[in-house]
Amino acid sequence: MDNMRELLHQRAALVSQASAIVEVAEKANRNLNADEEKQYADYTSQADALNQRIERAKHLAAMGAGTPQPEPARPDPVLGMGAHDVQRYSFTRALLAQANRNWRGAELEREASEATAKALGIQAQGFFVPVDVLAARSLQRVLTPRGWQYQPLRADMTKTPATAGGNLIATDLLAASFIELLRNRMMIQAAGATFLGDLVGDVAIPKQTGGATAYWVADNTDITAESTPTIGQVSLTPKTVGAYTDISRKLLKQSSIDVENFVRGDLSAVLARAIDLAALHGTGAGNNQPTGIAGTSGIGAVFAGGAAAIGDNPNGAAPVWADLVNLETEVAVDNADIGTLAYMTNARVRGKLKQTAKYAGTDSRTVWSDEGATPLNGYMAHVTNQVSNALTKGAATDLSAIFFGNWADLIMAMWGTLDIMADPYTGDVAGRLRVIALQDVDVAVRHAESFAACVDVVTA
After folding, report:
1. CA-CA distance, 24 to 20, in Å (whole number)?
2. Confidence tier at 145 by pLDDT (50, 70, 90)
3. Where are the domains of the chain?
4. 3-class secondary structure for 400-411?
5. Cβ-proximal residues to 93 (8 Å cutoff; 6+ apart), any chain
6. Virtual CA dihedral for 194, 197, 202, 206, nearest 10 degrees?
7. Secondary structure class of 81 (helix, strand, coil)
8. Most CB within 10 Å of its CB: which of 275, 286, 388, 448?
């Protein structure tokens, strides 16, 4: 069972990487270039090979080969809501009901929250938004030969004539799911991070931490020393992220579909920023946060300005071409330069590199080039101001970071479903609501060697 789960995770990561390549090209309204075509073909070929292994494993299990242990029973947060109920569910109606402590007119939303709480075995601090609604993009959950999947909804009521149901069906209400919005706003997802959702309980992902040892022996001589690979685990445990946004009560009272989608989008943006920041700069369990890439022990360390050691630039330094090459090298020397390789930094660093000559005094080309799909040292470069520009070293307090690595080895895990609290904004005469969103998440780096970071970059 563990092996099957590992194969499925590997396949999901490859599909995510292939999709990210296509998404970049589509956003730029262009075809894949030669390098992207090669990467896409490589990812899809590996995914096809994994599909064959998965199907073989399923076939053997069906024939009774081996004695796989059954998975322990666990709660399923998916309620199996009908198409009509998913269409009728309203974030804004639930927010107002919870803020007013009056669920009259929001019976569907209250029942869905209570059913989700029962399924998960925990109580909401505000109200639970059912997974059926969060994951729905005009979809329904159906059992297929490949397991549970979401497929297009079929409304129970017809659109024509209007009196038969057309007046009640908001066809554009679920144009994009909340989960989809959340992922699209997360830069780590765009970079190719592996996303694990719908989790219950702690998760441990196996990884090989050491290999067997080879020995040279004489002809007809036994190998005298036994050697075995060592196996470790990457542990993921739920940590609660809370974020809030303020919304006017008057806006929430509107029944417009656009307002409904606006509220969902605003909540997803707030959560995405918090999760992205934790994935990059999370400080660890001591602050109730996940441990982000920068805080992960064992990642490659590069010092700005081409410095060879941390003390060579006591207050940081301006970035140079050598820093980008050194980041790539730190990953490559550990044989980890495979997968979804890319840089990630903030807008200040990008602006600095666009004004920095690649080779000072001899080259008019700048380090950061807008030519082609790979602007930085032949790799994709993602820009987000979630990458900090307030890091400290010596007397400097405004340093930035540059990350490089295989982003598929960054794992993002989410448990349960969204917990929402809505209360009148204390002291606000305008009557705004403060909407607090809580979600259990964790992030982990599967192999520290897959990443390198430079965290002392001067951009002033």
Report:
1. 6
2. low
3. 2-72
4. EEEEEEEHHHEE
5. 105, 106, 109
6. -30
7. coil
8. 275
